[in-house]
Amino acid sequence: MRALRTHLPLYLLVAPVLIYFALFVFYPLGQGVWLSFQKAGLLGPQGFVGLANYHKIFVARTVWDAFWNTLTISAGITIFGTLLPLLPAIALAEITPDWLRRALQTTIYTPYLLSWVIIIGVWMNTLSPIGLVNSALIALHLIDKPVTFFASIPWAQPLLIGQTVWKDMGFRALIYLAALMSLDPEIIEAATMDGAKGWHKIRDLVLPHLAPVIGVVFLLTLQGSLHTFDSAYLMANGRTAEKVTTLALFAYQKGLLQFDLGMASAAGVVLLVLCLVVAAVSRLLVPQARL
Asked: Could you tell me which CATH number the domain at 20-285 has?
């Protein structure tokens, strides 16, 4: 009790956060897990069915397709979304005029502020049969007829990965840039005087300095990519749906479109377990990251 009275102001400061998580995270999470063992529809739970929903989950081919789609898309987004932003971050750090650096920072950050509806619309116009990319490829005689990118099954997952990486690249580049600003310039100057070239300075000084930040960005990107929904929902059509349907999108389709809330909740629990397992494994593989 003495410790409680001593630290009461601190407990009061933490209380709103705990209440928020209890009401809007842990309680809905518990309700979702409970609902996954129920037969539930539009009118709510209709009775306990045990593991029947999970049995339907693991024997359905569409669920396994969504599972592998989730892993494949997540892997692509995580790898490219972690490594590619290093390039603009290092380039921005080398730009001397502050006004130009700030202008470029704003430019590359802008896509992160746009909604997925706008992002998909921009890409659809650019990659349409009469869009810029097809027109350029035809003009260069690289293709004979336009490529229907958004209706092509082989292009479905690469486009989804590419759009996500492009949208978030500016945000992650600024994270790397902020970390680069803490690198002592005298170290770089000393390496230059010793004859170190550009690549050697990046490999031996910049990347080791950014290693903890890269680890954090890797974990954040990985966890976010496992919940891919908006972009997959907007990209799905009659030809590409089987390649872009993720577990999050599958749960939405089952729960809100087909009103099978029990199976949708079971799919959500499977996604939760997948995220926990991937997070645990990634923490072992990236021990320098501290969240």
From this structure: 1.10.3720.10
Of the candidates 42, 109, 28, 75, the residue with the CA atom closest to the CA atom of residue 262? 42
* Residue ranges covered by each domain of the chain: 20-285
- Give the helix ranges, DSSP H, for the chain: 2-6, 8-21, 27-35, 52-59, 61-83, 86-94, 98-113, 116-127, 132-139, 153-180, 185-193, 198-201, 207-225, 230-235, 241-244, 247-252, 261-285
CA-CA-CA-CA torsion sign (55, 61, 64, 66): negative
Distance CA 23, CA 106 (A): 37
Q: What is the pLDDT of residue 291?
A: 47
CA 114 to chain centre: 15
Q: Are 225 and 74 in contact (CB under 8 A)?
A: yes
The answer to whether the pTM exceeds 0.70 is yes
- Which residue has 């840039």 as its token pair? 177
